[in-house]
Every structure is written in C-alpha cells, then in structure tokens.
Write a structure and sequence with these properties.
Blueprint: H1 2-37, E1 41-46, E2 49-56, H2 59-64, E3 76-86, E4 89-90, E5 99-104, E6 110-116, E7 125-126, E8 131-138, H3 141-144
Parallel strand pairs: 2-3
Antiparallel strand pairs: 1-2, 3-8, 4-7, 5-6, 5-8
Length: 160
Amino acid sequence: MEKSKSKNLPKTKTILIFVTIAFVVFLISFFVNKRKLLPKEVKAVINDYNYYLEVAKTSKQREIGLSNRQSLCSNCGMLFVFPRQKIHTFWMKDTYIPLDMIWLDKNFKVVKIATVLETNSEKLYANKIKAKYVIELNANEVFKRDLKIGDTIQFPDFNE
C-alpha cells in the first residue's frame, strides 16, 4: 500500500502546481482586463482645458467620492458613473473642498451645474433632467471654463 501512495505523490504535486499556476494566470488576466474596462483616471476636456478625473463606478466608490480630502489639484476631479440615466442626489457631508457639480446625460451633455461653497453639509443637490454621469471639480472651474448647460464635455479615452 505505501508504495502506491508514493508513486501517485509526484502526479498529485504536478497537478496541484498546474492548477495553482492556472489560477494565478486567471486572476492576473481578470484584474488586467477589469482595469481596461474601468480606468482609475480618465481625461475630460472642457472648452479646450484638460482635467484628470478619478472614476467612481461602484456604489462604494460613489458613496466615498471626494469626502475626507483637504485639497484637490487645480485640474483634478472625480467622474461618477451610474448604471442608468436618472435623478442623482449629492451632498457635501464630510467633504471639505468647495466643489462644482456637473450632471451629464448619456451623451456627456451638461444638464445641470451647481457650485457648492458650503462644505461638510447635508444639504441635497439633484438634477431635474435625467443624468448618467456627474463630475466634481474644484469650485468655480465651470466659470473659468465658461461651461454652460447644453455644452458637451469630451472624454477622448473613456470607454465605459
């Protein structure tokens, strides 16, 4: 009996090594492909000026947003991506940076703009026209770029 077990041991080790390698390759492939589908940062062009936006696509990422940060670089922000176009409500709870909020429809057309100077507030801000995306930038960027409702924001490298 002992001899047959020892003969099968090299086969078992080989199979175990093969399965482990296959699993690691699968995990690497999965995460590499997932990163291609959801960039951590995307470029947005607003009236010929480039912004670099972190992408918040999951409900947890959208819930955290830009909260608990003390600053935001001058051409940085966040792009909130929602599963479908509808009314999306935001607040400034635990957010310490005054922000511009820009609601966009599925074609990246601006449907609402709010400049929110009151930080760490539970006041609610929402769109009336359905939106699929929301951008948050430092407050007053919309004025610097002369952005208006009806304008379209360009996302040259964004593939949802």
